[in-house]
Description:
Elements: E1 2-9, H1 13-24, E2 29-32, E3 43-47, H2 48-57, E4 68-70, E5 72-77, E6 88-91, E7 101-105, H3 106-118, E8 123-126, E9 130-135, E10 140-144, E11 149-157, H4 164-168, E12 173-189, E13 196-202, E14 205-212, E15 221-229, H5 230-237, H6 241-251, E16 259-261, E17 266-275, E18 279-280, E19 283-285, E20 291-292, H7 300-320, H8 328-357, H9 361-376, H10 378-389
The structure holds flavin-adenine dinucleotide (FAD).
Amino acid sequence: xxxxxILVVGTGAAGLAAALALARAGFKVAASGALDTASNGxxxxxxxxxxxxxxALGIWPRLSDLAAKIEAIEMVDxxxxxxxxxxxxxxxxxxGLAALGANIETDRLVGRLxxxxxxxxxxxxxxxxxxxxxxxxxxxxxxxxxxxxxxxxLVVGADGxxxxxxxxxxxxxxxxxxxxxxxxxxxxxxxxHRNMSIEFxxxxxxxTLVPLxxxxxxxxxxxxxxxxxxxxxxxxxxxxxDALAAEITSEVDGIFGAMRLDAACGFFPMxxxxxxxxxxxxxxxxxxxxxxxxxxxxxxxNLSLRDCAALVACLxxxxxxxxxxxxxxxxxxxxxxxxxxIALRTSGVDVLNRSLLSDSLPVEVLRGLxxxxxxxxxxxxxxxxxEGILPPQQVPTRPARPAH
Length: 404
Ligand SMILES: Cc1cc2nc3c(=O)[nH]c(=O)nc-3n(C[C@H](O)[C@H](O)[C@H](O)COP(=O)(O)OP(=O)(O)OC[C@H]3O[C@@H](n4cnc5c(N)ncnc54)[C@H](O)[C@@H]3O)c2cc1C
């Protein structure tokens, strides 16, 4: 039977990033999963901390041609609040950076990470689904859909919200849903986005435009994440491309002129999930197998990349101590290190989302005061920007090993 140090199950952005980081840290890694490279209008805004993670791995130069700079994020209240809520602009210049981050089409990011993985020493990439997993004393035995079997000292579950790895380890979850669906789309428009992301906060949640690179002959492009009621999502699913584009143009007040759809759209029901623990015997969870929440403030994959960096740091420390990397004692520091960051992002997104859905006056007053403080008090604004783009939980990643 084939053997490896670490099996990463799931080859979404989080699983591939983890596999690359672990292989570059010198572990023998196998990664397995179906590559989701079909476009569904989804992009990921990755902030400075995530870009530093990719730079430290030495792979940013192979991703940067996909990335559109985000220099500022503008938040505009469109809830019809009874309390005046000022516009807030979070700008890279506020914190002395050239950009807050970069926006990348998710399918292209996954495709490019897979290409890099295929050329990475210590890393074997397989496009097979896991069908079973069984633990032994000093290894885990994984069986794939093809019948292939593999022994590993440690399994990393990066297999998404419905994680089989998590279920097999009997790790509990807490799940909840929101009365919203996110419509995702890539749009082309008449006017330039000036490297600016714009969030319109409506009573049904944010409607956000994020800059994209020019492509397909379209000069000005942005991605859209528009949270709406389930009923509105069901109606909009039936619209033709032109009618839907007209509704998008109207929702964003025609800010970039007339818009058209540049690719297939996606519809994603909004939910949240936390897990009772991140580690088990010969097992660690990361990415959406470990946490999920709505795409407000673009936190999901940024959080997952911090999981990856923390796991690598934890396993390197175990290796230095001569510990078995699959032993629960070796893995506990990873679980402990990630708890507060995950809890903070999950609850922060939940509060922000529910504050938009609520029409209670006290909530409107609080939102008004908060927005006023961020708009007027520069040190407070700088603090929240840094918490979003380069949080203290960011694990420093070692410089990349020289390319082989
Ligand atoms: C509308 C929307 C917008 C978002 N915008 C942002 C953003 O701007 N910034 C940001 O940071 N985050 C954002 N996110 C979150 C981000 O997209 C996700 O966190 C990230 O893509 C999830 O990555 P993942 O690899 O953890 O999970 P997934 O992408 O779900 O990958 C899981 C993988 O596991 C595989 N798998 C499942 N079962 C098995 C099995 N049995 N065997 C092998 N493989 C298996 C699946 O095929 C899949 O490839 C957004 C999310 C949504 C819904």
